[in-house]
Structures are given as structure tokens and as C-alpha cells.
Amino acid sequence: MNRFNFLIVFCLSVTSYAQDLTISGTVVDDANQPIPYANAVLYTSDESKVINGSSTNDEGQFSIGNLALGEYVVKLSFIGFESVSTPISLTKTTDVGVIILKIASETLGEVTVNSKKPKFTKQADRMIFNVANTALVEGSMLDVLKSTPGVLVLDDNIMVKNSSPTVYINDRKVNLSASELAMLLDASSANSIQKIEVITSPSAIYDASSGIVLKIVMTKNLIMGYRGSVLAKYTQGVYPRYDGGLSQFYKTNKINLNLNYSYKHSKVNRNNLDEINYQENNIATEFWRTDLDRNTTTKTHNANLNFDYYINDNNTLSLSSNVLYLPFYNYKTKGNTFVKDLQGVDDYNFNSFNFSEDKKHNIGTDLDYKHSFKNGAQFLVNTHYTTYDYNRGQAVNSDYFFQNSASNFSTGFNTVNNQSTDIFSVKLDYQLPINDTSNLALGIKTSNINTDSDVVQFDVDQSTGSQTINNANTDVFNYDESVFAGYINYDKSWDKWSVVVGLRLEQTNIDGFSPVSNLNTGQDYLDWFPTFNVTWQAFEKANLYVGFNKYIERPDYTDLNPFNFFLNDNIIVTGNPNLKPSITTYSTIGTSINDSFTIEAYYKTVSNQINELPIQDNANNFLIYSQSNIKNVREYGLDFLTDLYISNKYSVFFLTSFFNHDFDINFNNQSYNFNQWSNFSQISSSFNMLKDNSLAVNLTVAYTSKFLQGTILGESILNSNLSLSKKVLNNKGVVSLMFADLFNQQDFGARSKFANQNNYSYHNIDNRYFKLGFSYKFGNTTLQTNERTKSLKERERLGM
To answer: What start and end residues bound the annotated signal peptide (predicted)?
Structure first.
């Protein structure tokens, strides 16, 4: 009886195992790009009956489970491509590897599609902009962002819905300042970008400080073997610029390696016109007009490493690193200032010269471990470390000229500034697919930022050249920030409904200390950040969605740093050690129709919004740029988006957003209201030309009306970019040409005028240029993949 029972249990176990096998694989096109939403259908060996089916995800991956031992045929298909059928003798869970679908000959005759049009997708929480194999990726990452729906790049500041987003590259946060981020993206080739996701309502998985997320997703190396590419570009603005780079990919069954390097030599010109009306008792006393000419020369090295080691089917170890190294970052600023009295008569004028020489590096490294369980759950560990080092030497000289030359004099000072920052974090995530329609994710994270910085100012005697330390403008600032976070996130789909709901808790501790001035600033707070998105498929081709999330912007070490940085004798940039964190709530409701039209309304509130404000010190004739909190900010708007595929060669994307920005500010014990309606509109047209579609063209034009940025009212701007790319040398080479600021309307002015404040600045930026590029792909990876596929079929036939 015992043996009989054992035999029954054994047979049931074998039967259960035999019914729990899986077939998986990855589907790509002939350009090695994933094909999402392709059909994967499993038939009996004679193809007379359908057993099961699935579709590929965004990465082109499919999985068909709950299968028994036997002989099958898996058929992969997608509209416009030739179907591929692969026989499989299933004796164990099998990965069929990479399957390449070719363009269907009956669709295109002898035409081969070499270039694609950008594809736009709107979801409840994000906009997805697929740009792989389009004309846009022949520029830099920053160039692609300039053509991304809803993204405004203004003077190298990236903006989405009047906010600065957090940039992630392949799910890894980029820890850089706004100017350094622009340098990194401008020096990085876009050749490997698959898509840009603009996430306006990120889930609880993201840091609460992420706010709006710009997620740059790079293409994965899906094909076995070695391949690579080289590129070179020449840019002509006011001055010429040069850059070049190398990308290499290598993949085997055990490892996946990607190494990128780029170098950029750049000289950029900038002219500013600044006007200040100094006042006393609300009556103008002096008018200052300054013409500035600034040249910035940089030599930028950028390297990126991604390495995956597949320990076995269930365990993967990954190492990635980004290096930004600037051994040479110099700028020279020449200023000529005229001071007039109330009658418009010149009182005096002065010339200033500011020479700054910087060196900096930023190295960010991630070590990841992923374990996959048999039930589909995943356990992920991420450790991150960033080291940042910055050194600046500055020399400023000014010469003052009066009507009586006997009153002429000169001033001068030098400063030395050093900053060292270390960022360390550990994150643990657990992701569980509860069933086919629901998933649970939870995790914890701890992070620490430590910064030590100092500045020493020397006053220079213009007659002798001797230097004396200026103790009033010499200081040290040490900053330490620790954040501990935990989250839970759940998503569920029904027949017509889907919901994503999450909650994140974050405990923050901040200590800032200046031993020279004996200034001690500290913050200690716990806050919770809920998020949810609900979508209702009301009709076959129309849905309705609502969303809500809450996020935080913490003042960082630069914002809190009390140092005074003098750009000349009268312009000061300083931090504010009394800044409070900013809390934002963001709500949306919208509808998408026929996958082509979207209408969305949003409402946003911000408490203690952090803005850099230009404040006039009318008593001492100083203009001070300092971070400040604006107590309550309200913004609401209506967006309309459409993405139309007019033909197989032409598509158009259009977005327009009307929004109102309203807030009150307390200044000198009085309240002032700021209210402004604004419009942001963007149109992007993509063309495929020539019989073989090897010429791709993209034209993007974006208009921004008058807009508020803190107390500053910016003038309207028209951005425009034209990109062309032509495949050559049997599709291995690409010649690209880009024209920026076609209509010469990207320069802008801005004024701050309230109370006894009245200053204006006009920015003439070196953003009108053309860029000529060439890239070439090498490596015979397709042949190696075909050999591997053939070998796999032979093993299957032999029962291996």
C-alpha cells in the first residue's frame, strides 16, 4: 500500500511538472530593435490546433507557459513583417533566443524600410516617445529631448510643465546639477536611445524627490556576438565645436557588455543685456545698463559601462558606471556697465573682466543583483555610489571711469572654491506577479549625501598686486543628508478597468554647518507620498483616466550653502540656509480616443516652492541671486495631444497646453500676487523619403508664450529644429545634418518687476547652429545569430 501511494504521488508530481513548462524568446526586426506587441502563437506540430498564445512586451520578449512535454510549432508575426515558424521539441523549459522578423515583401515590394518615424503613446501616467532608428537619434541626447513631446529646453535647463524633471537612464538616477546634466546629455550620442518616457505621475517605486521623471531607455543588445559603432560630428555656431565617440557591444550566453566613450571640444558664445532700475522710496535713483560677452570653452570626456553576468537562468549580476570628466572648463566674461542718473546723464561707467577656470569630475557606479523565482517574482538589490569633485579658480578685475578722471580707480579679487561630494544608497525591491492581472511591489531604500566645500576670497591691490584674504567672504560649509524610505505599490487590471496605487514613506535628516560663521542648519521630518492612477476603457476606442501623486523637492547643498560668490563687484550669487522643502500635489483627469487623440486637465499645488530670485539691494546697489521659498503656488491647465499617421511615409504629432500660474509672495512685509496665463504648443513632423525610405526627416517647432518662473516674467520663445539622416554603405553608415533655431527666435528676455524691484535681462544664446555627423556600424552579428539559431534547431531535432 505504501509503495502504491508513493507511485501515485510520484506520477502526480511528474505530471504536474510536465504541465508547467515554458517557451520564451525575444523578437526583433532586422535592425536589432525589439518589436513590441508581436503575436506569439503556439500550435501542435502539424499546425492544426492552437495550444496557447501571447504577445511581446516593450522589450520584444514573450513567454508561453503551462505547457506539457511534446512537439510544437511557435509562430511569430506582426503586421508588415514576414511571419516566422519555429518547430520545438519541448522536453524542458526552453528559451528559443532571438528571432528576427523581416519586412514583408508583399507589403513593400522591393522596398526595404531603413528608417522609422517617431511613435508617440499616451498612457494615464506618462507619455512614451519611441525614437529608435529615426532621424532624431543621430544627434545628442539633449537634441532628442528638444524634440520630445512636452519637454522644453530653455538655456540648458530642462523643463516639463514648468518644473525641472529628474532624469533616469535605464532606471538609474542621474545625480547631476542642471548645468552638468545638460553637458552630459549634450556630450552623449543618442544612437542607442530606444525611447523617452515623460512620467508626470510616477509610481511609489520612484524616490519622492523625483517629481516628474524623464526616463531615457537605451536599446538592449539582444543579438549574440560583437558589434559596435563610431561617430564624428562637426557643429558650427558662433564658433566651431567637435565631438566623436565609440560604442561597443558584446553578448554571449553568459555576459552582456556595452561600453561607450565620447569626447567633445566646445566653445560657446553668449551675450547678455542687463538693466537695473535702482530705487529709493519707490522712486528711481539710478539706471544701470550692462553689456556682457561670455565665451565658455570646455573639453568633456564621457564614458559609460554596462555589464551583465548571467549566473544562471534565475540570477543576474550587473555593473554599470557613468563618468563625466571635465579637465578643462573655462569661461571669460567681459562686461561694460553704464550708470545714469534720473536725467539720463552718464554718472560713470566701469568695465569688468571675469576669468574662471574649473575642473570637475562625476563618477556614478551601480551594482545590481536580480533573482527570479519560479513563480515569476523577482528580488532586486541595488547599491549606488557617486563621487563628485569640483575645483574653481576665479579672477575678477574692474576699472571705474568718471567724468573727472582723477576719480578713476580699479578693483580686483581672486577666489578659490573646492567642493567634494559623496552619494551612497542601497535599495531592496521585491516584485510579485500575484496572477495574470495583478502585481505587487514593495521595497526599502537608504541614501546618504555628504558634501564638504570651501571658498577663499583674496582682495588684490591693483597697484602692487599683493593679495589679502577677505575674511567676510571666506567660509567653509559641511552638509550631510540622510533619507530612509519604504514603499508598497499594487496594480490590477480587469476587463475594462486598471488601477495602480502606491504609498511611499520617507524620513529625512539634514545637517549643515559652517564653522567659520558658526551657522548651523538642520531639518528632520517624516512625510508620506501617495500615488494612484485609474483607467476605464469606456468604449472599444476610448478610455477615461484619473491620477494623483505627491512629491517633494528638498533644498540641496547648493541651495543651502551660505557662500557669497561675486560675479563682479555688484552681482552676487548666494545660498539660503533657511530654505524649507517644497511639497507638490499633482492631479489629472483625461481621455484618449482611438489611440490618436488625448485631452487632459491637471491641477497642481506647491507649498514652499524653491526658486532662484533676483533681488535688488537698492541701498548698496547690489543684485543678489538667492534661492527663496514661495509659500503657495497654484497651477492648472488643459492639454490636447494628437499623433497622426497620415501615410506610411508621413506622420505628425501635435501638442498644445494652456495653463495658469498663480501665487502670492511676501516681500518687505507686503503681499504681491503674480498671475499669468501661458501656452506651450509643439508640432513635430516626420517624413521618410526615397524609394527605399533611407532618407528620414524630422521638423520640430515649439512655441512658448509669456511665462512665469518665480517672480520673473519670461518673453515668448520659438524653438525649431530640423534633422535629416541618410543611410549609406549598405545601411551600415548614416550621414546626418541638423539645423537648430531655424527662425532665430530662441533668444529671450525676462523681467522681474514688483515692489521696489525692477530689473531686466536679455539672453542672446549661441543656439543657432548646424551640425554635420557621420556614424558607422561594424560587426557581423547577424551571421553569428543565424548560426546560433541553426544550431538550436539541430539540437531540438536530435532531442538535446
So the answer is: 1-18
